[in-house]
Amino acid sequence: MSASLLESHWLPFTDNRAFKREPRLFVRASGMHYWNERGDRILDGSSGLFTSAAGHCRPEIAKAVGEQLQTLDFTPSFMRGHPLAFKLADEVASLMPAGLGHVFFCNSGSESVDTAMKIAMAYHLARGEGQRSHFVSRERAYHGVNIGGTALSGMVRNREAFGTLLPGVLHMRHTLLPENRLKRGQGDVGVELADDLLRFVQLVGEKRIAAVFVEPIAGSTGVIVPPKGYLERIREICTRYGILLVFDEVICGFGRTGQAFAAQSFGVTPDMITMAKALTNGAQPMGAIAVRDDIYQTILDGAADGVTEFFHGYTYSAHPAACAAGLATLDIYRKERLFERARSLAPAFQDAMFALQDLPIVKDVRGYGLLAGIEVHPGKAPGVRGTELQGRLFDRGLHVKTTGDVAIIAPAFIAEPVHIEEIAAHLRDALTDERP
What we know:
Elements: H1 3-6, H2 16-21, E1 26-30, E2 33-36, E3 41-44, H3 47-50, H4 59-69, H5 83-94, E4 102-106, H6 109-126, E5 134-138, H7 147-152, H8 156-159, E6 169-172, H9 195-204, E7 209-214, H10 230-241, E8 244-248, H11 262-266, E9 272-275, E10 287-291, H12 293-301, H13 320-335, H14 338-354, E11 362-368, E12 371-376, H15 384-396, E13 398-399, E14 401-403, E15 406-409, H16 417-431
């Protein structure tokens, strides 16, 4: 494409000047692959953006969306509804840990996080504890880019211009510890970092914190797997002090950890779960929040009869086409047993990723399920080497997400062993000649 055709579009999370000097475009996708504008095939090593767990351009999803758009293209969700929204809510709820039986729909992971914050505040207000205005997150956390999620974020570049928009957010230390370097799965060191939450309770008061937001595996920051006992300890403190625990599973959800959600993989049940991305296989924008049943009921009971109980929602909440995509996606996951397939692929995938640790440029390898982070030693400035690596991999025929100096690998669940081998070979080829 000519430079003039590229100029009007302001790309998100992108060095726009560099992109427009040397654009890299996708024009087609199918299964495990993308194609660029020159017709070159590119293996997708990150499921799009952790979105397309069932592979790209599934005809079942396209058919469902197309038929829905010709039947009911839009309906307002304020004071009205449509059958697919209720059916999809039932399907999502059936995948949740016991007790999280109510689902609120939105349009992205960012919106799901901000919605969960509002639900937490509405719940505490309805139960007579409206003074709970503090939220707790973690360093290196990523919870989307809306105002609430940005304030929760613990990634410096995401916060430096916008992080003060919402006061009253406290950050626990992250759990990326040198003692757990090159540790496969959960590390043995770091459970005591959960007691940062206890310190915050003692700092602001026992009844001042509304909710704690935790990514079970911190994905966008570079795949930080929680140490053993850490999530359990967070759950224990939240329960003791009446704090809601929210798992942000926008990346982990829908089979990435081998179970439907990481909450089940780690055996820790939160009070809310945020989700998006793989909910519709990336075919339509959609997010959701699964909520503990008594939280929903408390908010409803706190309002007078005939009055709206929760003043929140979006024009496109539970959009009919998104619901159709979600139902078709969940049907594929179920019929093809893709969560089980992800679980069976995980050992060989982790073997292939951890085998890269022999390369001098590799600083750390981290992973769980079908998710791994390959961290390289930084170059002349943090993040530069990671960006260059992503470009080189694309040119060699592999797409992966990078954050800073970490390549994040998350193949689709339809991957075959040959795809895992190819991903590892591309990474090894791109990294072999690099030096710390």
